[in-house]
Amino acid sequence: MSAVQELEAPAKRTGGSPRGTGLFRAFWRWHFYASFLVIPVLLVLAATGLIYLFRFQLEPMLHADLMKVDQPAGLVAQPYETQLDEVRRAFPDATVVSMTEPSAPNRSTVFSVDTAAGSRDVFVDPYEGKVLGSLDPDRTLSGAAILLHGELMAGRWGDSVIEIAACWAIVMALTGYYLFVRGRVARARRRAAGAAGAVLRSRHGRTGAVLGLGLLFLVVSGLPWTGFWGAKTQQLATHQGTSFWAEDPGALSNPTSTLDESLPHSHSVPWALGKSEVPRSDPANRNRSVATVDTAIAVGERNGLRRPMTIALPSGDEGVFSAIGYAFSDPGKERTLHVDRYGGGVVSTYGYRDYPALAKVVAQGIALHEGRRLGVVNFWLTTAFCLGVMFMCVTGPLMWWRRRPKGKTLGAPRGRLPLRATPGLAVLVAALALFLPLFGMTLLAALLLDQLLLRKLPALRSWFNVPDPSPRA
């Protein structure tokens, strides 16, 4: 049986039109074409997501001389202010932005600094108080993975490509489920007959059936990050009296910026507080004692913040210390405390319980997306999911390569969505297009390309295996 005959067989057995209007063939065709855009991006996202997931294991191994220290017997850690002075001596022309406490007794203190050449993470031995060295956070393995994962290292254009691929991944998952259910008898028959590629196709289908819901969740939970859908939906949510992000009366040290702007490389910033504006210290308190990093740590601990904390340093006379409590595995414990740089009093505090309902949902979704919400269970399930997605990205093209027909044709399944004959399907497609505008725009472009170009040129029509026109479509 040829590839085209094999694709058309299910519709013929169920009374479908030989002209290519059956749902099975149509869904297979859309699944096929969606994969051209989705697979390369999804493979990059799965691989970089896996690297990011294991960053706490990989980076200390790759940079042990900077991130790991020996804990001398009987020696206590130096005050953080002393360590900060050493950083300022080592980088006299830089601005120290934040400090993160050591995550374990054998780990170094991390200071984030802004230099003329860009941001640097500076590592300090907390016991000896000496600077061990620095790294460009964007050039570490996990830093590069984050840039690829977020925007393919292509800025706004890369972000748009990822968002479009994410939209079409939803289409690929939904059509994949339809093919898995409707094609189960044909797959069983091919396995029984020992047909070439039958085992691989079954494994691909079963793996996809398990991963599909997880893929849909990760795509939806990742949409708030996107530059188009995320920004537009946030605007809509704001008009409805809610928000993706919390509305902290203040968030950071520099009163002209927001958390995510001032700490772009910090992974301690709670998602919901990323867009928060800042509070201000009262310069009238200058005649009182001046607070330090150690003051901010002590005030944070006294107010119940979890350690290790990240402390954003004040910038300017009105800046504050912002103590961000550790809430890696539980967004419900996210709290940020702002400490006056002069008297050391609490200017404001804001946490998960203060978030709008939508911000709470997004915060929980982000934690699940990053594999940290449910401890080791979430971690290993996300690991298995990334590996499974990579398996799907390899086996899909491999199946096509094995069944591709000889000659001048791509081997695309022949089928066309019978939207006029199935109003429910038309409503579903329209709903997806409205909910995901970039999907709607690219779908419209694909339909126009199909009608105005592929169907008009015989060579392209043959290459893409375009079905004949049908009044039922």
What would you note in describing this structure?
- The protein has three domains: 3-32 and 153-224 and 383-463, no CATH class; 64-139, Nuclear Transport Factor 2, Chain: A (Roll); 244-355, no CATH class.
- It is of the alpha+beta class.
- Helices cover 51% and strands 10% of the residues.
- The model is unreliable at 1-21 and 250-257 (pLDDT under 50).
- An eight-stranded antiparallel beta sheet has the order 4-3-2-1-5-6-7-8.
- It has helices at residues 3-13, 23-53, 55-62, 64-67, 80-90, 141-151, 155-182, 184-192, 198-222, 229-239, 259-262, 293-302, 357-369, 375-403, 423-435, 437-454, 458-463, and strands at 95-100, 109-115, 118-124, 131-135, 310-312, 320-324, 335-340, 346-351.
- The longest helix is centred in the first third of the chain and has 31 residues, at 23-53.
- α2 (23-53) crosses α7 (155-182), α2 crosses α14 and α9 packs antiparallel against α13 (357-369).
- A hairpin with a 2-residue loop joins β2 (109-115) and β3.
